[in-house]
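Run log, item B.
One chain of 126 residues. Sequence copied directly from the ordering sheet:
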Amino acid sequence: MSAGGVGQTLDTSAEIGPTVPELLAMAADIIDMVSGRVVTVEVGGGGVSVHVASQTAAEYLAWRLGLDKVLDLSASRSGHVSAVWKGGRWPEAQFRVFCDAEPVRPLRAFPRDGRTGDTAIMSGAT
């Protein structure tokens, strides 16, 4: 028996999330936002992840995308990534911007409502 029960139809269209072609279009737009200064892009799982080489490009993308969380990885064993900005909620696309350069602190997050004092800044890897 289905989870919806007999005679019930479940509407899952709101939970599907972005398709791969939609994510690819978003990735192309993100690359264009920073004039192609992107190291790598990953698409899938309902989101787009972008690696950039400079904090300037990372913060610009975080601002444009309204990413409200920033994770400081400098003191961790993350290898070359030093900061990650992230945001988005299902079923919308989720975005992550990775900065491969040593960041200048303090790191800033950019919530969509424009408030900068109420952001989540976390240290260490999660």
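Observations after the first pass:
- Strands lie at 40-44, 47-52, 69-72, 83-87, 94-99, 120-123.
- The two ends are 38 Å apart (CA to CA).
Flagged for discussion on Thursday.
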